[in-house]
Design goal:
By secondary structure, this protein is of the alpha+beta class. The chain has one domain: Trna Endonuclease, Chain: A, domain 1 (3-Layer(aba) Sandwich). The protein is 28% helix and 32% strand. The chain has a 6-stranded mixed β-sheet with strand order 1-2-3-5-6-8. A two-stranded antiparallel ribbon has the order 4-7. A hairpin with a 4-residue loop joins strand 2 and strand 3. The protein is globular.
Protein backbone atom coordinates (compact mmCIF):
# COMPACT_ATOMS: atom_id res chain seq x y z
CA UNK A 1 0.00 0.00 0.00
CA UNK A 2 1.23 3.50 -0.79
CA UNK A 3 2.36 5.92 1.90
CA UNK A 4 -0.04 8.63 3.07
CA UNK A 5 0.46 12.06 1.51
CA UNK A 6 -1.34 14.86 3.35
CA UNK A 7 -2.59 17.87 1.41
CA UNK A 8 -3.72 21.25 2.74
CA UNK A 9 -7.34 20.24 3.33
CA UNK A 10 -6.48 16.82 4.75
CA UNK A 11 -7.06 17.71 8.44
CA UNK A 12 -10.63 18.82 7.73
CA UNK A 13 -11.35 15.71 5.68
CA UNK A 14 -10.06 13.32 8.36
CA UNK A 15 -11.98 15.21 11.04
CA UNK A 16 -15.23 14.92 9.08
CA UNK A 17 -14.56 11.25 8.40
CA UNK A 18 -14.00 10.47 12.09
CA UNK A 19 -17.21 12.26 13.10
CA UNK A 20 -19.23 10.48 10.42
CA UNK A 21 -17.74 7.10 11.34
CA UNK A 22 -18.82 7.64 14.96
CA UNK A 23 -22.32 8.57 13.75
CA UNK A 24 -22.47 5.51 11.51
CA UNK A 25 -21.54 3.02 14.24
CA UNK A 26 -23.83 4.60 16.81
CA UNK A 27 -26.72 4.53 14.31
CA UNK A 28 -25.93 0.86 13.63
CA UNK A 29 -26.17 0.35 17.41
CA UNK A 30 -29.66 1.81 17.76
CA UNK A 31 -28.85 5.48 18.43
CA UNK A 32 -30.39 8.50 16.77
CA UNK A 33 -27.44 10.77 15.97
CA UNK A 34 -26.80 14.31 14.86
CA UNK A 35 -23.61 16.08 13.89
CA UNK A 36 -23.24 19.35 15.76
CA UNK A 37 -21.29 22.49 15.08
CA UNK A 38 -21.08 23.37 18.77
CA UNK A 39 -18.20 24.30 21.04
CA UNK A 40 -17.26 21.22 23.07
CA UNK A 41 -19.08 18.39 21.33
CA UNK A 42 -19.29 17.16 17.74
CA UNK A 43 -21.95 14.45 17.94
CA UNK A 44 -25.18 14.16 19.88
CA UNK A 45 -26.56 10.63 20.25
CA UNK A 46 -29.76 9.33 21.83
CA UNK A 47 -30.76 5.71 22.35
CA UNK A 48 -34.46 5.47 23.12
CA UNK A 49 -34.30 1.84 24.29
CA UNK A 50 -32.08 2.82 27.24
CA UNK A 51 -32.77 6.57 27.38
CA UNK A 52 -29.01 7.22 26.96
CA UNK A 53 -27.92 10.67 25.78
CA UNK A 54 -24.30 11.10 24.74
CA UNK A 55 -22.46 14.30 23.87
CA UNK A 56 -19.30 13.23 22.06
CA UNK A 57 -16.15 15.13 21.24
CA UNK A 58 -14.33 13.45 18.35
CA UNK A 59 -10.57 13.64 17.81
CA UNK A 60 -9.35 12.31 14.47
CA UNK A 61 -5.72 11.90 13.47
CA UNK A 62 -3.68 10.32 10.70
CA UNK A 63 -0.32 8.83 11.59
CA UNK A 64 2.45 8.46 9.06
CA UNK A 65 4.67 5.38 9.04
CA UNK A 66 6.83 5.33 12.15
CA UNK A 67 4.44 7.51 14.21
CA UNK A 68 1.60 5.02 14.69
CA UNK A 69 2.12 4.88 18.48
CA UNK A 70 2.04 8.66 18.95
CA UNK A 71 -0.60 9.77 21.45
CA UNK A 72 -3.60 11.93 20.54
CA UNK A 73 -4.04 15.23 22.36
CA UNK A 74 -7.58 15.31 23.73
CA UNK A 75 -8.22 18.04 26.25
CA UNK A 76 -6.08 21.11 26.75
CA UNK A 77 -5.97 23.54 29.65
CA UNK A 78 -3.19 25.65 28.12
CA UNK A 79 -3.30 29.35 27.25
CA UNK A 80 -6.69 30.04 28.78
CA UNK A 81 -8.37 27.03 27.15
CA UNK A 82 -10.46 24.61 29.14
CA UNK A 83 -11.58 21.92 26.70
CA UNK A 84 -12.92 19.74 29.50
CA UNK A 85 -15.18 22.54 30.76
CA UNK A 86 -16.39 23.18 27.20
CA UNK A 87 -17.48 19.55 26.85
CA UNK A 88 -19.15 19.48 30.27
CA UNK A 89 -20.95 22.77 29.61
CA UNK A 90 -22.19 21.64 26.18
CA UNK A 91 -23.46 18.40 27.71
CA UNK A 92 -25.33 20.35 30.37
CA UNK A 93 -26.99 22.42 27.63
CA UNK A 94 -28.05 19.29 25.71
CA UNK A 95 -28.84 17.19 28.84
CA UNK A 96 -26.38 14.43 27.92
CA UNK A 97 -23.32 12.70 29.32
CA UNK A 98 -19.85 13.64 28.05
CA UNK A 99 -18.04 11.06 25.92
CA UNK A 100 -14.79 10.98 23.95
CA UNK A 101 -14.18 9.36 20.56
CA UNK A 102 -10.70 8.91 19.14
CA UNK A 103 -10.18 7.92 15.49
CA UNK A 104 -6.58 7.20 14.48
CA UNK A 105 -5.66 5.92 11.05
CA UNK A 106 -2.33 4.80 9.68
CA UNK A 107 -1.28 3.38 6.33
CA UNK A 108 -2.81 -0.10 6.70
CA UNK A 109 -5.40 0.19 9.48
CA UNK A 110 -7.46 2.48 11.67
CA UNK A 111 -8.87 2.35 15.19
CA UNK A 112 -11.95 4.06 16.58
CA UNK A 113 -12.28 4.22 20.36
CA UNK A 114 -15.31 5.50 22.25
CA UNK A 115 -15.63 5.89 26.02
CA UNK A 116 -17.25 8.14 28.57
CA UNK A 117 -15.31 11.08 29.93
CA UNK A 118 -15.83 9.59 33.40
CA UNK A 119 -14.20 6.29 32.34
CA UNK A 120 -11.33 8.14 30.67
CA UNK A 121 -10.74 10.23 33.80
CA UNK A 122 -10.88 7.23 36.12
CA UNK A 123 -8.57 4.95 34.14
CA UNK A 124 -6.51 6.76 31.52
CA UNK A 125 -6.29 10.50 31.99
CA UNK A 126 -6.88 13.42 34.27
CA UNK A 127 -3.38 13.87 35.59
CA UNK A 128 -3.35 17.21 37.44
CA UNK A 129 0.26 17.92 36.46
CA UNK A 130 -0.48 17.70 32.70
CA UNK A 131 -1.79 20.68 30.75
CA UNK A 132 -3.03 18.30 28.04
CA UNK A 133 -4.86 15.02 28.55
CA UNK A 134 -3.85 12.47 25.90
CA UNK A 135 -5.10 9.18 24.48
CA UNK A 136 -2.07 6.93 24.32
CA UNK A 137 -1.63 4.70 21.29
CA UNK A 138 1.28 2.75 22.78
CA UNK A 139 0.83 -1.05 22.62
CA UNK A 140 0.49 -1.27 26.43
CA UNK A 141 -2.48 1.09 26.40
CA UNK A 142 -4.09 -0.48 23.34
CA UNK A 143 -4.12 -3.76 25.28
CA UNK A 144 -5.72 -2.01 28.27
CA UNK A 145 -8.42 -0.47 26.05
CA UNK A 146 -9.18 -3.86 24.51
CA UNK A 147 -9.62 -5.38 27.98
CA UNK A 148 -11.87 -2.56 29.21
CA UNK A 149 -15.57 -3.24 28.44
CA UNK A 150 -16.28 0.50 28.93
CA UNK A 151 -14.12 1.31 25.88
CA UNK A 152 -15.87 0.56 22.58
CA UNK A 153 -13.31 -0.29 19.89
CA UNK A 154 -13.66 -0.63 16.15
CA UNK A 155 -10.65 -1.78 14.15
CA UNK A 156 -10.57 -1.23 10.39
CA UNK A 157 -8.07 -2.88 8.06
CA UNK A 158 -7.35 -1.12 4.77
CA UNK A 159 -6.77 -3.15 1.64
CA UNK A 160 -6.41 -1.29 -1.62
CA UNK A 161 -6.45 -2.54 -5.18
CA UNK A 162 -4.50 -0.50 -7.73
CA UNK A 163 -4.73 2.63 -5.53
CA UNK A 164 -1.24 3.95 -6.28
CA UNK A 165 -0.72 7.27 -8.06
Amino acid sequence: MAEITKTGYFTKIIGNFGENLVCNWLARSGFDVALLDHTGIDVLAYRQATDERLGITVKSRTRLTGTENTCVNLLSSRRGRDDRQRIVKACEVFACKPWIAVYVEARDAADLYLTSLANFDAKYGRRPDNAIDTWSMAPKYRTQYDQDPAVKHLCIKFESKHWVW
